């Protein structure tokens, strides 16, 4: 599937992963170390939403 996408298409892909709020600290890590490692090793940008902050197009 990814073979048919251009590099521009791939860079525009967004993926939403839901995690319980009590697991957010584990994803972020001490001093942001875990999230920085995820971003560096995968070449992605990770955004953590604040509580009650919704993804565009969501209401709740």
TrEMBL record:
Keyword Glycoprotein: no
PROSITE patterns the UniProt entry points to: KH_TYPE_1
Molecular function terms, GO-annotated: RNA binding
Annotated K Homology domain residues: 15-48
Keywords of this entry: RNA-binding
InterPro entries tied to this protein: KH_dom_type_1, KH_dom_type_1_sf
Pfam family, one: KH_1
Official protein name in the record: K Homology domain-containing protein
Annotated source species: Protopolystoma xenopodis
